[in-house]
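Today's session is about reading a structure prediction critically. Students often jump straight to the picture, but the first step is always the sequence itself: look for stretches that repeat, for charged clusters, for runs of hydrophobic residues. Only then move on to the predicted structure, which in these notes is written as discrete structure tokens rather than atom positions. Here is the chain we will use throughout the hour.
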Amino acid sequence: MTDISRHPLLKQAFAVVQAIENCGASPHLTDAVGQAMDLLHAIDAYVLPVREEPAAPKVQAIQGEALSFMLDPLEQAIESTARVMRDERDHMAEISMTMAGNVPTTFLYSRLGKHLDELLAAQLMRVSRYE
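Below is the predicted structure for this chain, in token form.
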């Protein structure tokens, strides 16, 4: 599967494929979609892979210094839910952006939004107890 986010040419070729598919069905259009997909795969094979970020320096313990800390489970749940929602939105943007540029939401995205609302409400209740 081609990751179209790797390069602007891949996004552009994918947009051409989508535009041809939106034209309807005919033997010529089906052939054109096949050729456009071949072009997309050829571009994918040609463009250089995305450079990986350099590895973060390793944390080393210094004698007398404490390195351990505990993350709050609620904060971890909020952060991971927000990350999954972002990934779902980005995935949907890649595969089903409308002609107007809108990204339709999925059931998963809506459910995660409700879950995030509940987590944030619990966090607000916890914080308001200490004020």
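Discussion point for the tutorial: The chain is about 60% helix and 0% strand.
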